[in-house]
Amino acid sequence: MHLSEFTILTGILLVILGVPFLSSNVFVQAKVLSFPRSRLLAYILMVTGVCWFLFGHVMQLGEADFGEYKTIIVLISICILFSAFFLTKDFLAVRALSILILLYSREVLDAAFLQEPSARLFLVAVIYILISVALYLGAYPYRMRDFLTFIYRKKSRPKYLGIALVVCGLGLSFSALSY
Predict the structure, then answer these.
(1) What are phi and psi of 122, to 5 degrees?
(2) Could you please report the per-residue DSSP string of 80-149?
(3) 91: alpha, beta or left, given left = phi > 0 and alpha = psi -120 to 50?
(4) What is the pLDDT of residues 51-77, one digit of tens each?
(5) Which contiguous run of DSSP H or E holds residue 4?
(6) pLDDT digits over 75-115, tens only?
(7) Suppose 96 and one of 46, 53, 111, 121 were both cysteines; which one would form an S-S bond, judging by CB atoms 3.0 to 4.6 Å apart?
(8) For the purposes of burial, counting CB atoms within 10 Å of the CB of 108, is it exposed (0-12), middle (13-18) or buried (19 or more)?
(9) pTM of the full predicted structure?
């Protein structure tokens, strides 16, 4: 994908992420608050992350990039996948989301490499913020629960967060038109 496509996709993803926070529906709030410990989302996101890693990165390795160890890397990755469901099952959805954010960030930064600074500045800034958040939440996944609890403690906070995410997403999408 090209830089403009990644910019639009990142903007759309931020808008999709922000819309549930704009809703004042109790059901939506309960689903957002249950995300960190959701077993179903943990399974979906972890399998997606491992498949993305294996098929998007490991299978593309050449001999100079440890390509002769593909089988070992695949076996270790699958062992990590299954052991994660037994050993670190608490807040696994947050860890899996962090994995997906980091894999997505790599693709975006590869597309932004050697592009004009004015064209990639906003997108790269947002991506580096997402990388920082993903690394933090990957190390301390229970902080996602704490953050969501903090956000929903007052009625106005989810709306402000949702507005910020939607505005950032729309800003990214419209900035892609300037490329």
Answers:
(1) -65, -45
(2) HHHHHHHHS-TTHHHHHHHHHHHHHHHHHHHHHTTS-HHHHHHHHHHHHHHHHHHHHHHH-THHHHHHHH
(3) left
(4) 999 988 888 877 777 777 888 888 999
(5) helix 3-22
(6) 999 998 999 888 887 899 999 999 999 999 999 998 888 77
(7) 46
(8) buried
(9) 0.88
